[in-house]
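pasting for ref. prot 1 ->
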Amino acid sequence: MSEALGPAGGATIGVIGLGAMGAPMARHLARAHGTVHITARRPRPDLVADGAVQHADAAALAAVADVVLLMLPDLPEVEQVLAEGLLAGERPLLLLIGSTSSAPGVRALAERLDRETGGRVRVVDAPVSGGEDGAVAGTLSIMMGGTEEDCALAATVLAPCGTPVRLGPLGAGQVAKACNQLVVAATIAALGEATVLADRSGIDLGTMWDLLGGGYAASRLLETRKEKLVTGDDAPSGMAKYLLKDLKSGAEVAAATGTEAALLPALLTEFQEIVDAGLGERDMAVTRRFIAERKPGAEKL
């Protein structure tokens, strides 16, 4: 193994889930740690050229990996990969669950894996924020939950991808991500609605958002979605349907903590309407189109 892998404690790193987020993260890990092991349903010569070693399946990857980052949509996809052979190895294995998922669901999965493998397989939840731009730039915010020892190793492994921080025991990362997504959903909902109000009042949208972006309305979301909001382009990047999934996880947290949320139910209703209208696979900036096309008499938020 390359000496470049030393900072990760000599751990052999694997990545499964090479989509818009996982692929650039794998690239950062390969460049920083000397190599990374991957598996995918199609060849990835682009990643191999950057130092990745591609394996035929999850079982082959499990035979060599000590730490595996799972950048998959949710726990059902994680379960599928486990069933396809990720547990086939005999060496201790640390799974980093990068998907945004239910905190109770992650804890239940970890308890089951601990029981079924006699403690050989351990779990850290490590959802990320920053979108595809952050994944490419290596500036993601990485929210971790797990034991101090496991999170210390996870932080060393994931450092090339952004800023990993342990927030508490297993599940804490998912709670933090639910909080993050509550803010994201509220912000993009407000931006979409405000855009329609301004447009129908005859205000030049580009001029308005340039101006308001210098005040308290400024946000990273406005910065990255301003052009989409102004032009009405909601070609997918961060899809709206995933915000709905994440808001449901937030509702789980609210119920578990006895929190009588006021904003969360309204956002759940809005994003459920967006998905029901067939717009769930559009970019989250589809909130502009959703409000513009919403008919009088539609269910009030």
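and prot 2 ->
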Amino acid sequence: MNFTVISKGDDKSNELMNRLYDRLFAHGLTSDQEKPDIVISVGGDGTLLYAFQRYRHRLKTTAFVGVHTGHLGFYADWVPGEIEKLVHAIATMRIQVVEYPLLEVVIQFDRENKKQSFLALNEATVKTKEGTFVMDVEINGEHFERFRGDGLCISTPSGSTAYNKALGGAIIHPSLASIQIAEMASINNRVFRTIGSPLILPSHHYCDLKPVTGDEFLITIDYLSFEQKNVRSIRCQVAKEKIRFARYKPFPFWDRVKASFIGD
């Protein structure tokens, strides 16, 4: 079995990365940064998001496992004190794969039907560079509302506990193939009106965002952030691809939610 380890880059994470390499080599496993069977993320959720984007072209064949070196992460099953258990599990146990749904974002540009596609594990956000964000929201090709405000956040179920939750969105179990649209400071008065509530779309529905004023936007895909010009529309839907996590021990989703937000 081939593996690679991606570290957050701090001293603690680097030390654990080196230990993982040494112990896994001792068990006869080989390292392959190009075509790994398993990617071990050492750090936090941000480190695993980076690992996902780096290997998103190998989602059908590569599985991910996380070791967190800071606060409890939603994508990290293991703590530093369990390194030996993790190494033994990878070397001797058959992988139990758990799949989580992803978000596909397709940006359509004005010229020559140019398109650009992205995958997000957590969420995508859309804002304007300046002024009020005004966007027509269509669901399955039908106009739903004209949104005015700071922007929109479209999240996956596993990403529903991140920025989406801070915006008042619902927490969705990752077994539900869906996406969620949450508003950022919408403008609601006697002239302008939005739904004022998060929307949850199933896998067979899609959402199109179409600019009303301006065509330059600030877009984030997980930790990636960039400007896009000449945007005609942005389509968001549940992706056909899924991320595969290597599970060697149970850690139910609701236990993660409780540990992160409620505690003992």
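The mean pLDDT is 94.
The longest strand covers residues 231-247.
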